[in-house]
Amino acid sequence: MRGLGDHLTIGERIAFHRRRRGYTQQVLAGLVGRSTDWLAKVETSRRKPPRIDMLTELARVLRVPLGELIGLPVLMEDDREQDDVPAVRDALMSPRRLSRLLFGPEAEAQLPTPGPTAQLAEQVWNDYQGGRLGKVIAMLPALLQTALELEDRAARSAGERRDCWAVSARVHHLAATTLAKIGESDISWLAAERAMRAADESGDPLVLASAARSGTHALLANGRYDDAMELGETTAGWMSARVDDSDPAALSLLGMTHLRAAIAAARHQDRPTATSLLNRAEALADQLGSDANYWQTSFGPTNVVLHRLSAELDLDNISYVVARGQINVDHMPPERAVSYRIDYARALSLAGRGDDAFVELRAAERTSPQLVRNNPRVRDTLRDVIKQSPVTSGARSSEVFIMAQRCRAVQ
């Protein structure tokens, strides 16, 4: 449900859905094991928003998607609405996907070949890493239709079968990851399931390991942290027996599997597991030797550090993130760099360093306006910065408020 308005705080969203369910503050607080005073302060923003694990529990009790409490991004591109999510949904839910026997192509139908589609998919992956999500969403409906036709071709051509399924897996992985990024958690899971089914059919361990990342993205977006950890651990164990540990692509995919599972553990407030997984990823990054981008993983020593900071933020270790958060990300793909700056800005604002937080958000916005202006965590951070005082100057205060309006953090 996207009817609450982007300017509402997390507390106001909790209060809205509490009243909608007919719960008093005392009842809801009791259902999540907290005091009425705690909930009252959360709803009125007299204390900082709950940690992600508590938000997940509140969402479960209130029976709403996690994204509804956090605030769903609304996809925009350069101030022109480019929201083709309904077309992506239509492509994923076409009845032709239900049965190949019922809806298979006509005998003479011209079906695409995997080579050109693979090249186009990688170009759109580059758009994703460049933070151009509007362009990705615009391309996905046609790409998903082509992926379905490639699956039809796989049934006809034994020689191209593996390649057709592998390309379908990459396209559906891209769809799942993008949809999770923009808050479409339900169809993100649908796309991830399709990605992994296609990867299974391809028989390629690296394709399956890559597709499993889409599964963890979708599970994290749905607040299913135990399931995300299980998927990561199962994938890592399966990979270890089937890939060459001197292959940099395999190292990167295995490393990212550990990193995504580590974030799931951190959001579940399982510090020992998160630390163990991060350490395993760090060992693989050291073996790789440098930052790389095999299979669009951005994996390497820097990405391990960035995930460690993100995990500590989820674990509420703000002082750690503030003390160690100044990382050079100029060489990283924009999507990864912006995600880091948003996390670091959030930690700075929680530490009372509003001006420094604003500097990070402005740097992130210059890199990718779309990723910043439509991010719920950015909105929360800007509201915190506005509240903090004293501000350094009237000019800076005005700049913060103008950015908050751009990001729909305030009306």
UniProtKB/TrEMBL annotation:
<dbReference type="GO" id="GO:0003677">
    <property type="term" value="F:DNA binding"/>
</dbReference>
<dbReference type="InterPro" id="IPR001387">
    <property type="entry name" value="Cro/C1-type_HTH"/>
</dbReference>
<dbReference type="InterPro" id="IPR010982">
    <property type="entry name" value="Lambda_DNA-bd_dom_sf"/>
</dbReference>
<dbReference type="Pfam" id="PF13560">
    <property type="entry name" value="HTH_31"/>
</dbReference>
<feature type="domain" description="HTH cro/C1-type">
    <location>
        <begin position="14"/>
        <end position="69"/>
    </location>
</feature>
<protein>
    <submittedName>
        <fullName>XRE family transcriptional regulator</fullName>
    </submittedName>
</protein>
